[in-house]
Amino acid sequence: GDLDKVVNLLLSLSGRLARVENALNSLGPHTSAEDKVALREKKRQLAAQLEDAKELKEHVGRREKVVGAMVARYLRDEHLQDYQHFVKMKSALITEQRELEEKIKLGQEQLRCLQESL
């Protein structure tokens, strides 16, 4: 459960950071200084939060190894391999799901922008 939460947090923060970076890159010459400063501050905060989340993921990874070692004492090899595969696939699938959700959001935003420009 913790692994799911940390992976979701990492994906959420990286997606938000990417959106803020895109917003900064698309600022026009008439954008107020306040807006620019606010976006830069948001970017700084998100980058710091992302680093904290990475440290948290490392901690969860270390704890996962301890749990895996304990589980290994009680499971036969075939069941242990199934458990290890499950843990790896769960994270990968969560990551893939979030990436797809982000791509859908990006596509919807692009579509909205195109419709507004027409």
TrEMBL record:
One term under GO cellular component: apical junction complex
PROSITE patterns in alphabetical order: ASD2
One of the protein's GO biological processes: actin filament organization
Protein localization: Cytoplasm, Cytoskeleton
Pfam families membership: ASD2 (PF08687)
Chief location category: cytoplasm
GO function terms (MF aspect): actin filament binding
Superkingdom field: Eukaryota
Residue span, ASD2 domain: 1-118
InterPro entries hit by this protein: ASD2_dom (IPR014799), Shroom_fam (IPR027685)
UniProt family annotation: Belongs to the shroom family.
Protein name: Protein Shroom4
Lineage of producing organism: Eukaryota, Metazoa, Chordata, Craniata, Vertebrata
